[in-house]
Amino acid sequence: MDVAEKINLQNVAVTSDFWNRYRELVVKEVLPYQWKVMNDEANISIAEDPQNNGRDQNSHAIANLKIAAGQMTGHHYGFPFQDTDVYKWLEAAAYSFGYHPNPDLKKITDNLIDLIADAQDDDGYLSTFFQIDAPERKFKRLQQSHELYTMGHYIEAGVAYYQATGNQKALSIATRMADCIDNHFGLDDGKIPGYDGHPEIELALSRLYEQTGTKKYLDLAHYFLNQRGQDPDFFTKQDKADGWDNEILPGMRDLPKTYYQAAEPIVDQKTADGHAVRVVYLCTGMAYVARFTGDKGLLEACHRFWNDIVHRRMYITGNIGSTTTGEAFTYDYDLPNDTMYGETCASVGMSFFARQMLNIEAKGEYGDILEKELFNGALSGMALDGKHFFYVNPLEADPVASKGNPGKSHVLTHRADWFGCACCPANLARLITSVDQYLYTVNGNTILSHQFISNDATFNDGIKIQQTNHFPWSGDIHYQISNPNHGTFKLGIRIPSWSAKYDLKIGGVTKSLPVQEGFIYLDVAAKSLTIDLQLDMSTKMMRASNRVESDFGKIAVQRGPVIYAAEQADNEAPLWLYHVNSEAKTSYHYDDKLLNGVGVIKVAANRERLDPDGISLYQPVQPATDTPVDMTLIPYYAWANRENGQMRVWLNS
Asked: Is 543 helix (H, G, I), strand (E, B) or coil?
């Protein structure tokens, strides 16, 4: 056996109790609930959704497809990208079949594929808003239309559905879409020398190329990336030609070119600017295309954007997007906690970006950020019941402030039934159902194990890796490796940045291995081998860089990958009266009856006495009257699942 023979990952079965609860929740609650919502059969209210933009309690997403297919009459309802709610839901369902076969659900999804095929135009075009109400405006206002974004989401779903079920029609819809786009876009005479205002198609075409091997799809993705920003006035020219005031999404023409990452070519862009989801979808596409083409300019851009986001513009929970205005990044180190945005979709997109960077290079930081998103920023977007959701994920919240201050009205302190712009719920569902695809990265003869989610993984030549743990509550990680036929291969295991020290045993023998870019490596030659890794799960008091004004003089609490929060349900309000010293005593215990089982941290604190109502608003400084107390902290992802009240991640020190 050639010891350098390429290893292929064949199957990963998630065995983690933590993640299987979520994965089964998606199958049993989330997917049926969202299907009812999209069919206008759920009794929901989006009255409190500050993003509903006048939409009522219904989705109409399936109705739009039926109208486009000629099965119903009527007008399009919702946003121009309303179709994508259906496509992301379909993708999530496709992944779920890999661990929870469901004949009843498959009948629904097969019929949905038939409906989508019927709705598709003969030339492959499919965007129901334009098919139903504005066929003369196809590809005429790309700044706002989301046409390529919409079709990109179907292409992703179609590839996933084909991989899960072998349904050829699902893949054919995707290839016909891509062919349609290829026929319309490019620098040849008669083609449109532009791109979509919302990046997505780039990563979708890369996935389609990965599945089909058809190079024109990769070339088209490469074109869109290279063309973005070449003519900074492209969108303006289209807007004027289409009718300056004939907007699809009012107000979007007034946003700066940086909002769309279109002010200059990508290879010249230095910072991560604009709409946060657009940025990370763009970055995912860049990483995909850079890996397949070897484009060094795109890879350098990936590194620049990554470093700017992770080291200057990311919250401790992994959330990104500092302002509700445009759901966007602002400037370096501007990370307000109570007016932030932190959209769930942005954390999901950051997970995509991290995964693709791991496919390019073995760097532990990519695994660290992926882990941060999975256990904090993204997971916060769904309630424990699977039927309520956050669009915005703040690090400080107060129901009185959200109700009384218009500048904080976007911050909900309890998760909503649904949203007028419902991109987040299905996006999170597709991440959870596909989490098995985020645990290993294989490159040649090297297997990287970068996520500590219990699983049974099977590779070619009989290689099997079984990982067992009680993560994220325990740092004891056990590997059982079977290697009967392959010969020697290299295994890399990530040592998280939060674990400054660790203990390692290989075959029961204590070993010390150097950490290289966040990984330890060992050559596996034996037919059977055990590895025991013990990570440092001590509770840590964290501070932000003192360049971050909002967090100056504050501390946050972290244990393992999990960021903790104080909630009014456990601590007498107001939470701003508490002071926690960086040397404060802490204790930890696991409570299997609280919030479906969570680790709970108690931290010694001092609580100031609340001034009586009506006392002079300003007065001379007096010695504070503090009462020693124990604060109770729960994982950030689990907040807002009990009573409605205040929450804080960053605590006064």
From this structure: coil
Strands 598-608 and 586-591: antiparallel
Catalytic member of 156, 423, 424, 567:
423
Q: What percent of the chain has pLDDT over 90?
A: 93
CA proximity to 430, closest of 349, 541, 310, 315: 349
Q: How many CB atoms lie within 10 A of CB 590?
A: 12
327 is catalytic: yes
C-alpha distances in Å from residue 518, one per residue of 22, 358, 548: 28, 12, 26
- Which of 33, 34, 26, 20 has the alpha carbon at shortest distance from 87? 34
- Residue ranges per structural domain of the chain: 440-535, 539-652
Q: Name the pTM for this structure.
A: 0.97
CA angle centred on 193, ends 188 and 197, rounded to 5° = 150
Relative orientation angle of helices 215-227 and 201-212, to the nearest 10 degrees: 160
* DSSP states of 13-45: EE--HHHHHHHHHIIIIIHHHHHHHHTT-S---
Q: Domain 440-535, CATH 2.40.360 — does that match? A: no
Q: Is the peptide bond before 472 cis (omega within 30 degrees of 0)?
A: yes
Residue from 202, 327, 343, 371 carrying the catalytic annotation: 327
Would residue 371 show up in a list of annotated catalytic residues for this protein? no
Give the tens place of pLDDT for each residue, 240-280.
Answer: 999 999 999 998 989 999 999 999 999 999 999 999 999 99
